[in-house]
């Protein structure tokens, strides 16, 4: 084997090392871009999938809603409010009684409304009807009654709690 001058051998090794470093750099760059791309796609998908579970957990943690000034609600009228993240309604009946019910239809989750002149809670989506005193489903497709809450009239406010 012929003797290779020390300088040529060193130059060859330097080129090999530079090539390996360049390949490593490109591979790392591609890996980093791939990770960013996966994050950009994956995070919204994760948020989309996790939201119902997070909403359910948040809703489950809420046990009370305080409605300041709601005690002035005239008899025969209602007030929509949020119980946690869910629409709900407070009804002040003409006999003086108070009723708080969930305002989410048990059929396909449309928001229901109180119709005092017809003494009913009505869901306009498919004609569901509920009793405004009990929340019981009385006509149409709703399979279950509305969620019923306890109502307490305190000084200048109404406190609604999970029954
Ligand atoms: S969503 Fe209310 S009756 Fe269908």
From TrEMBL:
Instruction: Write the protein's name.
Output: Rieske Fe-S protein
Give the E.C. number(s): 1.10.9.1
One Pfam family named in its UniProt record: Rieske
Give GO MF terms, alphabetically: 2 iron, 2 sulfur cluster binding; metal ion binding; oxidoreductase activity
Q: Which residues form the Rieske domain?
A: 65-160
Transmembrane stretches, start-end:
25-46
Tell me which SUPFAM superfamilies the record gives: ISP domain
GO cellular component terms, A-Z: membrane
Top-rank taxon of the source lineage equals: Bacteria
- Record's keyword annotation contains Oxidoreductase: yes
Q: Which cofactor does it need?
A: [2Fe-2S] cluster
- InterPro entries, per database record: Rieske_2Fe-2S, Rieske_2Fe-2S_sf, Rieske_Fe-S_prot, Rieske_Fe-S_prot_C
List the Gene3D superfamilies hit by this protein, alphabetically: Rieske [2Fe-2S] iron-sulphur domain
UniProt keyword terms in alphabetical order: 2Fe-2S, Disulfide bond, Iron, Iron-sulfur, Membrane, Metal-binding, Oxidoreductase, Transmembrane, Transmembrane helix
